[in-house]
Amino acid sequence: xxVSFVCTDHSLKSRSAEDRLNRQNxxxxxxxxxxxFRAVAMVARSLGQLSVQNVPSSSDSSMKQPxxxxxNLGKSGLRVSCLGLGTWxxxxxxxxxxxxxxxxxxxxxxxxxxxxxxxxxAAGKAEVVLGNIIKKKGWRRSSLVITTKIFWGGKAExxxxxxxxxxxxxxxxxxxxxxxxxVDVVFANRxxxxxxxxxxxxxxxxxxxxxxxxxxxxxxxxxxxxxxxxSTLRDPFNTSKSRTFIIEETVRAMTHVINQGMAMYxxxxxxxxxxxxxxxxVARQFNLIPPICEQAEYHMFQREKVEVQLxxxxxxxxxxxxxxxxxxxxxxxxxYDSGVPPYSRASLKGYQWLKDKILSEEGRRQQAKLxxxxxxxxxxxxxxxxxxxxWCLRNEGVSSVLxxxxxxxxxxxxxxxxxxxxKLSSSxxxxxDSILGNKPYSKKDYRS
Length: 448
Fold this sequence. Notes:
It contains 18 helices and ten strands. The chain has 448 residues and is of the alpha/beta class. Strands 3-4-5-6-7-8-9-10 form an eight-stranded parallel barrel, surrounded by five helices. A two-stranded antiparallel sheet has the order 1-2. Its main location: cytoplasm.
């Protein structure tokens, strides 16, 4: 039924909401009906006032800010901002604690909820700085996603690696420095090299990788005991332990810290796809918790792993990608186009390797390509770093890209990459690939 009525501008301005509702229903002879409408109007006005009062203000930085995108970390239920803030080099080292607080506050107010650190960053000081800021700001713990990485903890032999002892003790120490009861994700920061691959018996090496390859391609549940096959095929002279046992110990320890409430999830960092599949196989076999994410380096000059290997892991077993160094340690920022400026990362003590890389022949070729990419960025109305970060975000398997910044201007520029993402059409991506000339071959026909 269509209801229409006519009223003048004067009556529209002068009549209250209650009067207008009464006018619309004036044809109804029922006094009870009109009373009901008046009651509804009064309730509606009350609810309207309440909703206005209870809407979080723009000063409530825990809101999802316009423009910030949120994605699931792998195929888990954990929602993370597509951009995260890393603390490598900067927190506890390159920048002051005051600047670290400014950066973290700016990130949080712009919708970033993911903050990444590690026990080894600045010998643990990065975790201390991060924890102090969280405590000072009084942000709700439930609004944050805090991740840390375990591998290098101290100088003693038992204070590094992925043994059950160091994973549990190392994470406890990290939580004390962070002043937190738990982290959202704890990463195994590299595979444990205690049993080098080349020390395995040849037969065990071949069969282990054959099994992992079969699972990798067709996602078979483990039907052959990993530990049994490892012990059966182990070196008969017992000169080396099976790497599978090392991974099993790691998976069991990660499951333990999650069950103890010290972490919500666990992931890997710098692991190969085969090693991740082994961890997944062990977890499925023994009813343990598998990793949900691999933290990997990804930028325009480093593509193979994130574009070829990890997408298959994502589709097969749900492992996502949290990527770092989208600007290749600053190489793509454009700051090194005329050499190494003072106070840049490449000029810091301990980063001679980066300086050598920039000044090498390959580094000069990369700078030439960046000049061509700069022209594309100008056409899109963005900076080269924004183009590079948006280029990383376009990958379907990338859950979040970790940013590194030493001042607020850099961070705001990097966050602006979100606005560039919709501009990356297929033709733009193809043009970028043509300039880079390093696109890896990747199949898209993932089988379920």
